[in-house]
Amino acid sequence: MHPTVENITQSINQVILGKHQQVRLALTCLLAGGHLLIEDLPGMGKTTLAHALAQVFGLAFSRVQFTSDLLPADVLGVSVYDRNTSSFQFHQGPIFSNILLADEVNRATPKTQSALLEAMEEYQVSVDGDTLPLPNPFFVIATQNPKHNIGTFPLPESQLDRFLMRISLGYPDPASERSLLKKQGGRALDQKPSTICSSESLLNLQSAVEKIHVSDAVLDYLQALIQHTRTELDTGLSPRASLGLRKCAQAWALCENRDYVIPEDIQAVFPSIATHRLEEDSNTNIAEKIIQNVAI
Amino acid sequence: MFEGTSDTMTQKTLSSHHLYWLLVSLGSALALHSIHLPIWITVTTAGLGIWRYFIDKKHWALPKLRWLILLTLLICIGLLFSYGSSFGRDASVSLLLIMSGMKLLETKTVRDYILIISIAYFIVASTYVFSQTASTFLLSLIPLTLLTATLVQTSLPQTLNSRLAFKLAGKMLLQSIPLMLVLFVLFPRLPGPIWGISKDAYSGMTGLDDVLELGDVGHLIRNSSVAFRVQFDENIPSANQLYWRGPVLWRQQQNQWLTTESNVPLSHESLMTTGIPIDYTITLEPHNRHWLLLLDMPTKLPDLATLRHDYTAVAKSPVRTRIRYQATSSGQYTLSSELSPQQRKIALAINRDNNLEAISLGQSWAQLPADVIINKALKKFNQEPFVYTLRPPRLSSNAIDDFLFKTQKGFCEHYASSFVFLMRAAGVPARIVTGYQGGEINPNGNYLIVRQSDAHAWAEVWLKNKGWVRIDPTAAVAPERIEQGIEEALTEMDELPIFVRQNATWLKKAYLNWDNINNTWNQWILGYDNKRQLAFLNKLSGEKLSLSDIAISMIVAMLVMMLVTAVLLLTKKQGKPSLVDRQYAQHIKQLSKIGVQPQIGEGSVDFAYRIGQLLPKQAKQAINIATLYNELKYGPLQNNSQMRQSKQLQLLKQMIQTFHRSKA
Amino acid sequence: MLEALQKLNHAFKQRLKALFRVAKSVNKVATLNARQIYILPSRWSLFYLLLLLALLIGAINYTLSLAYAATFLLAALANVAMLHTWRNLAYLEVSINHAKPVFAGDLAEVEVKVRDLKNRSRYAICANFQDERSTTQSINANTSEIFTLPLTTHHRGYLSMPRLRLHTEFPLSLFHAWAVVKTEEKILVYPKPSGDALVIPNGIDPDSKGNQSMLAGDEDFTGHKTYQLGDLPSKVDWKASSKGMGMFSKQYSGEASTSLYFDWAQTTGDTEARIAQLTRWVVDAQAAQLTYGLKLNGQIQFMPNNSNNHYHACLKALATR
């Protein structure tokens, strides 16, 4: 495994117990420069993971708890009239940070959601006719409860597509849970992983991802997968998704400390990229099925 | 099991694209025939095709039945005008073409398409009735491939990429060649024909007639097609010896010269030869006449020939296929040392109503000895301003007088006929011999090509003790004609076929090469008849084969060839996997023997882990193999030099081998 | 006499069918092996044979070597075409992908997945169920294609899929190759709704309100639950809130949901007629977006609901009863 990446994962794994795969996927997503959606039932450690990710990179971090009365201005910032200068002064909202943790994003009204998602896509914010760039790097880690919980506004597909990956944590295995229970204090959030990575080294890793070699043979396979979703399912994957798939596979290969992508890399990241876009809510295995049906 | 299903296929209507394919391939078949059929047939058929195109393009309605009937009637009348009552080869092909064009007008379903395509196949093959040259064959491959490609398109509901259809059709035709060759060599040839063939089937053949009317040989001289080819067992005799004997003309009727009447029995002329016998083999092109051309004078005849009394060799039936025959001749001979009174009478008969001037000239010589008379006549040709030309002026009914005393321009037949006329007037028995003179040596194949343009007419006079002696009056005027061929004899550039003109040397060279190919083609492909087949197969097997032997060997060879094609076609893996893939495929093949196979979508590393679970001892080996395979297959190429790649490939090979060795 | 002959013909065909090897699906996937492909000349190959004969006769009669060559080339072409046709069908993998349930008498659309196993593009592959219309598609090398095949249904319940026939005449239509696939797959057929437009009954309680506008009502207060963001303000128990007891939302349940039941006992006629009536009600109720339950055999089979899953579960219960 890539030495830096290994340090980071180890550090996070001390906080999130027994979720090695998910931690790596989340890391891959950030290395690929995409936004991450973590979806699970309450109390599964979503916020903890997001928190730990932000912490470990030592980046400017802010957190917004999304509620139904949250307004776009609460996220983006507001212009306040300043008496001294007799002009409006823009006060930056929490979005102006490197990592924004949008907790329970599906609780906010669509209006607020779209304000956030527009910023995610364009890496800039438009307020009162001014366009303000967001810092670099900029990630959104959003968490959400599964849709069927009461009082939520599920994200429409167009906005789901903005998230490069969606992962869900699932219940911990008994051993991990036991060690969690044995811990002093109990609250995981109290434990903070140490900061390992600077923002420069993150940017370095990101540019290293770009350089990972993707052979034609791998692209053939990638296209076959995408094509399969388009022919076999009602709605297939978008070109944005296929670009993201390539990027994530490259990031995954980097995590493996390999300078070229192999089909297994694609297979590893494919479910996280495909499932939320294919809107087969009842059938989470759909991505696995596709992998089992497309020859390498 | 398959009822009701092909209906859905054949009832289906096809798209415009299919129609265009059909029109183009039919058009190419039509083009093959356009050379030898009346122009209106080609135009009408093409018009029908264009009409069909517009029906499709502009969404016109297909024509009603009554219009079709009317059109058919009109076309039948046209055919009747063109061909009269003799409904033969040309008329049938025309009818077939027109009918396929008519069929187009009611073509909608796959069934119609398929019917038209099979008719079109037949139309393409019918070109061979007109011409069987190598170039015709090559040309006919174009519509053949197009038709097959169209057929491929018709079997698809939507049209295939044109290039793919072409490629597939071409590939299939190529794959058919081995079996075709087996059948071609071994299918027992029957001596045809099965039924009578209408006369017009041979209208295209040219050759010497048994009538000579002044101007006749001239039309042959303008024809550069090959009359026959000769292969000499030893050296080719000099050009002035090469007189190929054809019909002998005795009787004069107005301006015509004719052979002797068959109801007048004439005794066979005797022949004594003294020279060295010359053995040769002739491949005679079909000319639809009985003559078998032989070198003067034949001593040993081919089996199929009989001799007429005047030493003209004839076949039993007109020569309608290319035939080969061997013969022996001798250049020094005495023919008919005695002349019967009857023969003498015919050989002296002239029409005394016309050409009075010539008669009086002849009669003025009558008292002289025969050889002096001959010399006098030849001197006349030689010393007076006679010109050898292929464009003689028109002659009146006093043709010989006109020629001898007025125009003095003409070619071999003028000289020969007026010479014989003068001889007869002077009382020397004489006759005209037609045939060919000379020929062109093809150095590429060391054989002689004799063309229609080498057609010639000369004279024979009967002299006491010497018999019939050949006198060529043309030689007196234009000796080059005899020594070097016709193109030398012409003073001005007459309208000669291009290949006969010698200034086009490179063209001539190319032509000689081409003729060599054609000769081989004729000998082996076109001349492959029942005799040749038997001879060839006997030589091949070293035994004397019967027809049933050939049939049995054909069936056996056919089955073997079908099997071979099947094995090659059905086991051949499409696409060339890279060397890496081939190595890895070997690995998988070996593993499948112990019942492990990668599943669909299972990557090599995952598979290696699975192998590791089954063969724990070799888990590491398996993973190493997978890793190396991945690196070679998916790794960046620019980092690896060619050398290193092949080394790694070698390493992979070794690793796979060790893996399977230690497994056992 | 004729009938007897037809019978005999039919028996013969059945016998013939039994003789033929059939590709059986294992784990829902059937592979067309070499041994399961049958091939016979197609009808138009008769034309072609006539053409060959005519050419051969012509060649013999006119002693045309090239006509011989053309005849033999076309004959060999037929042989090659046969191999190509065979090859076009062999080594395909067939699996039933998906079959949406349908009402009896409707055409079911069965999705059949056909996959190439030999790295060869396949062209004009036709597939059909016995006595049904066929669908034609081409399949690219190493990929699969979905054939949507119609299948007539007659009776409710599970319908075993009849034999599936794959056939092709590509490339020259000279030969017809086919293979028969037998799958264990079954397709669910819902009962045919009764033809009469029946008034939807109000439920078992004759006193309950049958007014449709009230069906979706929110009459009955069932209890409190803690307030959650996004709950309707009108439902918040402000009284309790003002007393400082915290935020609660009031919960109601629609009255109709407890009352609209379709009962076996409400129907008349024989079993099939009753099922048809019940089906009609279920279908109509779903179309009107009502909440309904189903009672069979005097006991509640399904609690009232109006989700899609509920609808299909009700129909399935009716289909298999």
Concise overview:
By secondary structure, chain A is of the alpha/beta class.
Write the layout of secondary structure elements.
The complex is a heterotrimer of chains A (296), B (664) and C (321).
Chain A (H helix, E strand, L loop, with lengths): L2 H11 L6 H12 L3 E5 L6 H12 L3 E5 L6 H5 E6 L4 E6 L6 E5 L6 H13 L1 E4 L2 E4 L5 E6 L12 H4 L2 E5 L6 H9 L16 H13 L4 H17 L6 H17 L7 H12 L11 H8 L3
Parallel strand pairs in A: 1-8, 1-9, 2-5, 5-8
Antiparallel strand pairs in A: 3-4, 6-7
Chain B lengths: L4 H7 L4 H18 L5 H19 L7 H19 L5 H16 L5 H21 L3 H21 L7 H25 L24 E3 L2 H6 L4 E7 L10 E7 L1 E3 L2 E3 L12 E3 L3 E8 L9 E2 L2 E3 L4 E3 L5 E3 L7 E8 L2 E3 L5 H8 L7 H10 L4 H14 L3 E2 L10 H9 L1 E2 L1 H15 L3 E8 L2 E3 L4 E5 L3 E9 L3 E5 L1 H5 L1 H5 L2 H4 L15 H22 L3 H12 L5 H25 L7 H14 L11 H11 L4 H16 L7 H22 L1
Chain C lengths: L1 H18 L3 E2 L4 E3 L6 E4 L3 H17 L3 H25 L2 E8 L2 E2 L3 E10 L5 E8 L5 E5 L4 E9 L4 E4 L3 E5 L6 E8 L3 E5 L21 H4 L4 E7 L11 H5 L5 E6 L2 H4 L1 E3 L7 H17 L4 E5 L2 E7 L2 H13 L1
Helix pairs in contact in C: 2-3, 7-8
Structure description:
The complex is a heterotrimer of chains A (296), B (664) and C (321). Chain A is built from twelve helices and nine strands. With 296 residues, chain A is an alpha/beta fold. In chain A, strand 3 (77-82) and strand 4 form a beta hairpin. In chain A, helix 1 (3-13) packs across helix 2 and helix 2 (20-31) packs across helix 10 (239-255). Chain A is globular and about 65 Å long. With 664 residues, chain B is α+β, with helices and mostly antiparallel strands. Chain B folds into three domains: 5-160; 211-500, no CATH class; 579-663, no CATH class. In chain B, 52% of the residues lie in helices and 14% in strands. Chain B has 24 helices and 20 strands. In chain B, helix 2 packs parallel to helix 6 and helix 23 runs antiparallel to helix 24 (642-663). Chain C is an alpha+beta fold and 321 residues long. Chain C has two domains: 21-190, no CATH class; 212-219 and 254-320, no CATH class. Helix content of chain C is 32%, strand content 31%. In chain C, helix 2 (45-61) packs antiparallel against helix 3 (65-89) and helix 7 (271-287) runs antiparallel to helix 8. The longest helix of chain C is centred in the first third of the chain and has 25 residues, at 65-89. Chains in contact: A-B, A-C, B-C.
